[in-house]
Amino acid sequence: MEKLRKGFIMLVLFGLVFVLTACLSDEEAFIQGKWGIGNAHYWSEWDFNNGVYYFSYTYTPQTTSYETGHYRVIEIGEDDILLELFDQEGSMDTIDEPVDLRIEFDSVGDMISISGKEYFRVSTASLEALGTSQAP
């Protein structure tokens, strides 16, 4: 009987941890997915997916840099969110220490701003279309 009780308690605790980690704030839920910016000469993409991020920058079809890793929410503001990026890997100079990334967002315009650059929500199929639609 004692084993059954301990097993039940462990199951409840596991379920509670799962529920708490699976819940995203509205701000974190908003940034989930792909975000792109570009024109005929370059394009850049961020992808946030439940604690994992991917960033790429393409200057020419032959020159693409990328970075992937994990993120955690550090701070949530009224119109921004501060993430800590860690476990970075990729073709860019990998940083050994975690990096803070502030993302400002505009839910009405469905865009985010990172380092002063505005990124628009895109689907996999629309990334190339975004690049050509914003060409000068």
Describe this structure in words.
By secondary structure, the chain is α+β, with helices and mostly antiparallel strands. It has one domain (26-133): Lipocalin (Beta Barrel). The protein has helices at residues 2-22, 26-31, 127-133, and strands at 33-38, 43-49, 52-60, 63-76, 80-90, 99-106, 111-114, 117-122. The protein has an 8-stranded antiparallel beta barrel with strand order 1-2-3-4-5-6-7-8. The longest helix has 21 residues, at 2-22. The radius of gyration is 19 Å and the shape is globular.
Which descriptors would you attach to this protein?
136 residues; alpha+beta; Lipocalin
Quote the CATH topology. Answer: Lipocalin
Total number of β-strand segments? 8
Per DSSP, the total helix count is: 3
- CATH class term: Mainly Beta
Mean pLDDT: 81
Structural class, judged by helices and strands?
alpha+beta
Which term fits the overall shape? globular
- In quaternary terms, these chains amount to single chain
Largest sheet properties: 8 strands, antiparallel, barrel
Q: How many domains?
A: 1
Walk across the major sheet and give the strand order: 1-2-3-4-5-6-7-8
Q: Report the order of strands and helices.
A: HHEEEEEEEEH
How many whole angstroms does the radius of gyration measure? Answer: 19 Å
Helical amount: 25-40%
Query: What's the end-to-end separation, in Å?
Result: 73 Å
Architecture in CATH?
A: Beta Barrel
Low-confidence stretches: 15-21
Approximate strand percentage? over 45%
In short:
By secondary structure, the chain is of the alpha+beta class. The chain has helices at residues 2-22, 26-31, 127-133; strands at residues 33-38, 43-49, 52-60, 63-76, 80-90, 99-106, 111-114, 117-122. The protein has one domain: Beta Barrel (Lipocalin), CATH 2.40.128.
